[in-house]
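Good day; I would like, with your permission, to put a structural problem before you. I would ask you to consider whether the tokens describe a fold that such a sequence might reasonably adopt. The full record is reproduced below for your convenience:
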Amino acid sequence: MNKSVLFFLVLLLSVFCACNNYNNGNASPPPNVRTDSANFTQVQWRDSVIDFGTVTKGEKVHIKYTCKNIGDKPLFIYYVRPGCGCTVADYTKAAIPPGNTGEINAEFDSNHGIIGQVRKTISVETNTTNASPRLIFFGTVKDNKQAGDTAKKTS
């Protein structure tokens, strides 16, 4: 068999597999996810604002946001960007079928020179008719010295 014909058959098989994955909710977002209003859905966020409480400088805070696809088309989270370098985020990259949930998992590193009250945001874009919120988390970061002084006073 000619190498170009074999290559074409493998490529064709790959396309069919990719289409099958989309139907099963395992695909990455289609290239026109931002503009194809025929495939827009609706999302509901369980918590778009989270208070992580008080941590000591140097601790990492794990924050989980959960969303539910309340529409009738697959939901795609296609853009997630923390507002600063002290936060990293990962998210559900597969299609979220109607009625199912997805997550954005963030990690805030309090070792980035911030002492006192902090308020951070994460920008999110989805293929929805309702606006995706800017996710927010906040709390207090205590200095290592303050934490040590408090421990000495209570001993």
Remarks:
- Confidence is low (pLDDT under 50) at residues 9-26, 150-155.
